Amino acid sequence: MLVVMGSNALGYMMLEGAFSSLYQSGCMASSLRLSEHSLDNSSCKGMGCCQASISFPSNHFLILIEYSGSGDYLGYLHDNSTFNICRYAMLVEVKRFKFSTTYLTTPGTFENDAVNLPVVVDFTISNETCEYARQRMASYACVSIHSTCNNHNNGLGYSCKCFSGYQGNPYIHHGCQDIDECLDSSKCYGICTNTPGSFKCECPPDTHGNGSIPGDCYKNETKIHLSKTVIGSYHYAKFWLL
């Protein structure tokens, strides 16, 4: 999303080469009746801070910020106010930006926090579908043998991704490498055996259960087999004739 901060700051994202009127998204951070006491911490809904979604894909764009207004109202209500006179416009990952009033009242605060704000850049390969791109293997981008092709959700183009159980760069040969799940102790609590793209987790010998669950390997019960032996005896008597 696009975030704009400051006093009467108009920020917008414009397609490169279309400076006349065509732009994708924008908003204006107003300063009307703005003072320290009117600022709402964590709220970025127009007063000193605004945000706008980016709804259309673009290969090239510019982010511009302008001053819009006849006067600067920041700090005019309080002589002892220390408002930041800077204006900002930036791209930030959705739901990762939290506005703080100190960004406008304390110079340097935003600059310190901005280095930790992530942004997600989505891109596609050419204007082809996966099905068509596979027919042109000379230019097909998913060159790793352990990668797959995904059609883009917003129009033509595709991207590459490593198979499940693999990680790395799908755009280079042998770029997707097997993940050794056995190196992660939380994956298996028994005997772990790594396999291509997966792993096996078994309970130790003489135990049974699910090795992937902590404490779920139980010792086998010892069964004692008793052999019953019937010993027979017979009695005999001797008789003498007199």
Keywords:
Laminin, three-stranded antiparallel beta sheet, mainly beta, flat
Structural account:
This protein has 242 residues and is mostly beta strands. The chain has three domains: 2-114, no CATH class; 130-178, no CATH class; 181-219, Laminin, CATH 2.10.25. Helix content is 6%, strand content 27%. It has three helices and 14 strands. The strands form six sheets. It has a three-stranded antiparallel β-sheet with strand order 4-1-6, with no helix packed on it. The longest helix is centred in the middle third of the chain and has 6 residues, at 109-114.
Low-confidence blocks of residues: 71-81, 233-242
Count of the separate structural domains: 3
Number of helices: 3
Tell me the span between the first and last alpha carbons.
126 Å
Shape: flat
Beta-strand segment tally: 14
Q: What structural category arises from helix and sheet content?
A: mainly beta
Q: Note the run of SSEs as H and E.
A: EEEEEEHHHEEEEEEEE
Strand content: 25-35%
What integer value in Å does the Rg equal? 35 Å
Mean pLDDT: 79
Protein name: Wall-associated kinase family protein
Organism: Rhynchospora pubera
GO molecular function: calcium ion binding; kinase activity
Domain EGF-like: 178-213
Can you lay out the helices and strands and say which pair or pack?
Layout: E1 2-5, E2 9-15, E3 23-29, E4 49-52, E5 61-67, E6 88-91, H1 102-105, H2 109-114, H3 130-133, E7 147-151, E8 158-162, E9 166-168, E10 176-178, E11 191-195, E12 198-202, E13 207-209, E14 217-219
Antiparallel strand pairs: 1-4, 1-6, 2-3, 2-5, 7-8, 9-10, 11-12, 13-14
